[in-house]
Structures are given as C-alpha cells and as structure tokens.
Here is the input.
Amino acid sequence: MERIPKSGEFYRHFKNKLYQIVTVATHSETGEKLVVYQALYGDYGIYARPLDMFVSEVDHVKYPQAAQKYRFERVEHLVDDDEAVKVSANSVEPGEMETGVNPKLLAFLDANDVEEKYQILVSMRDEIDDSLINNMAVAVDVVIPDGDVQKRYEQLKLCLKTKQRYETDRLR
Here is the structure.
C-alpha cells in the first residue's frame, strides 16, 4: 500500500473534518494494522480504524455528494500565508476557504520544537481563548485547569518554558 499514513501527518475525512495521525499500530491478537488518529476539532478525541478502511475509497453509492475519492485524504498544506487554502495530496483547490481551524494553532501543532511553540503562543496573546488553550495543552501533553483565560494562558506559557528547560532529545 502506497497510501500508508505516517505519524504527524494531517488527513481530511470526506465529511471535511481534519485529523492528525498518531501512529499505525498492530492489533495484538489478530495482527491487523490499525490507524490511530486524533481529531483536530471538538474534544480532540482519539480514534482507531483498520488501515484497509482508513485508506479505502468513499462509498459513493451511500455518499453521492462526497467530493473526495478516498475516505481520508492527506493534507499537504493546511493554510497559505495570505489566505486559507485547501491543498491536499489528491486535489488542489486554491481559494477554497479552510473552516474551523486557526492558522496559528496549526503552526503551533507543526512547530519543530518547544521554543517555536512558545513563540507562537506569545504571538497569540490577544486572541487566546479557552478552546485554543485546551488544544495547545493537548498537543504538548499537559493539563491546564479551568479558570480565568489569562491565568490559563500564563500557566501554559510556564509549562512550555519548563519543557523547554528540562526536556531533552534523549528519549526521542
């Protein structure tokens, strides 16, 4: 299979929701390959689906309005600097607006290191809200308790500074 997803890649479901691949796992009893992926919306749930089903084509009899060929299609670039543009590996439609995902959140998720994540967070000071804090906290595997948005923002900044200071590449 040439369409095997890899950790960290982004995919769009044919119902137009975005997901990020966590890993491709092997079922311990059956040996079946499973794609483990996380929603990039709502409660950011984590799901597993058989690889064969993940890479399968959309049932266009059941879903005649589906625009995508495949159930999940890889997304190469989520946004362009000037405007939100949908650019997937299988279809390029410049000018089509991306919906529901903050470009700075996507940059945060794509950041190469904790310092870059911190700088993106600092740049969002005036637009930060509970949802963004929750999403970013999930991405860096921390929990920021509910409360005042500015206090939560400062707690997330502190968590990133702590990770930056004490985390190393020794376990990666």
User: Anything to note?
Assistant: Confidence is low (pLDDT under 50) at residues 80-99.
